[in-house]
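User: I've been going back and forth on whether these two constructs are worth ordering. Before I decide, could you fold them both?

Assistant: Sure. I'll take them in the order you sent them. The first construct and its C-alpha cells:
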Amino acid sequence: MNETKDNREKKSWPNSLPRKWAFLWGAVGIVCAACTSARGGAIAPSEPSEVRESPVLHSATQHSPIDENWKQIALRYGICNVSVAVLRRRELQSIELTPGCTPDSATTPDSVFEAASLSKPLFAYAVLKLVEQGKMELDTPIMTYLPNGYQHRSKVYLPDSSSDQVSDPRLKAVTVRMALNHTTGLPNWSSGALFFNNSPGEKWEYSGEGYVLLQRAVEAITQQNLSQFMEQQIFKPLGMKHSAYAIKPEIERFIVGGLHNDGTPRPAFPFRVPVAAFTLYTNAHDYGLFLSALLKDQAILEQIAASPIPVSQKLNLSWGLGWGLEENKENVFLWHWGNNPGYRSFVMVSPATGDGFVMFSNSDKGLAIAEPLGKMIFPGQHRLFRFHLLRDGLSNLMCETFDICFSL
C-alpha cells in the first residue's frame, strides 16, 4: 500500500483527493491505562465470456517473488494459515502460502477463507457493472428500485431473523453512490430496528447496513438472490471456481477453520444466507483473478475514485466506490480490510502500476501481516496502517482518539 515505484507508469487518475478529519478526545486517564495494556492484547465488459484457465503460478515450493520474512512474522504471531495472491502489471503472478502450524493443517492453493468485508469491493464491482449496463444509476435513490419498501432484518445472516419495515423518510434520500462510499448515515449494524446516525450524504461512516440495502435493490432489479447474481455475473465469467456468498458443498471441504487469538479453534458458523457485506467465501487465487480484471478496467477504476469522500486528512485517506483510497506524492492506492471472528483479510492495489496483493488468514491476529506485505509490494510509508478501524477494542480507541497506534 505504498509509495516508491519503478516509474513503469505514471499516476493517471485523480491527482488529488479532498480531505477532512474529525478528532475525538477522551480522558487522559485512558491513555495511561492503555499504555501498559494495549499492545498485548464481470463482469467482463458487456458480453462476458468464459476466461481461460490461468497460467501456472509460483507455488510455495518454488522461488518466491516476494521476501519470505512475512512468513516468519506469521509464525511469530501463531497465525497458522495464510494465503497471499501477488499481482504485477495487472496479472496474477503468484500464490504465496504459509506451511501451517501442524503437518495436517498445511495451507494449499485451494484453501478457502471467510473474506469478511473484502466481500464489499467485489460486490461494488458488480454494482458498477450494472451501472455501466444502464440497469442502475449511481445518484438514483435506492428506494426507487424497492417500490414495496424496505424490510430490514436485524440479523441479516440468519434465515429466521426478526425484521422491521423501515418508515424513516430519510431512507428515500439514500442513493446507490452513498451506499458504496459509506455516506448513507446508517450505522455499521443495527441489532434492532434500523436507525440513522447522520443525515444521508452528510459524512463518511462505515456501514454494512448500507450495503445490505443496496443488495436488496440489486436482487429486485435482477430478480436473482445475491448468490445467483454473483455466480452468473462475476464468478463464472472470471473463472472464480472456489467462491460463493453462501456455503455450498463444492467449497465446503476446502474451508479453513478460524482461530481465536490464543490459537484455539473457533466454532464453525457456516453462512447459509448470502450477505453482500461480509459472507464471501473465497481463496487467494480467485480474488486475484478479480483484482486482475479490475486493474484492467480503466472505466471502473476511474469511477471508483472520481468523487472521493474525506475520511482522514492526517492519514491522506478518503473513500471511493467500494474501496478505501490512500494518496501519496506518486500514487493513489485502493485498499480494504476484512474482519470476521477467526478471520482477517487485507487487499491493496495500485491502479497506476497494476501491482497489488490480497491476503487471507484464519486468525484474529491476521492483520499483523498486512503492513509487512504492503511494504514488500509497495516500498515506502503507508499511513493507512494507522487507521483506527484496522484495530480492535482499546487499541482502536487509542489510535482514533489520541493517535497512539501500536503495530498491527
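The second construct, handled the same way:
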Amino acid sequence: MAMLMGTRVSVHELLRRSAGGDRAAFGELYDLTSRAAWLTARGSGLADPDAATVLRRVYRELWERAGEADVQADPRGWLLGTVHLAARGLQPL
C-alpha cells in the first residue's frame, strides 16, 4: 500500500487511476514497485544500463496497458513477470 494524501492506496487503485491518465498515480505506482522491478532485472543478469532500458520499456508498456484485464488482475505479478521475460530476452516489448 502506498500513502497518497494521507490515505493508504493499493497498487490496484493506483493502476486504475493510471489507466484514467493520472500521472501522479503512475508516479506513486512507480515509486512503490520500481525497487522490486530493478532487483528482478538485475537478478536476471542484466548490467545497470540494460536493466534501466528494460525498466523504461516495461513501465512505458504498463502506462499504455494499465486498463487491460491481464494487467489489472495482478499488477505486481504482471510487472515483475514482464521485467523478467524482457530481461531474459524471451518477450519482445
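Notes on the second construct follow. The first helix runs from residue 11 to 19. Residues 2-88 form a domain with the Rna Polymerase Sigma Factor; Chain: A fold (CATH 1.10.1740.10).
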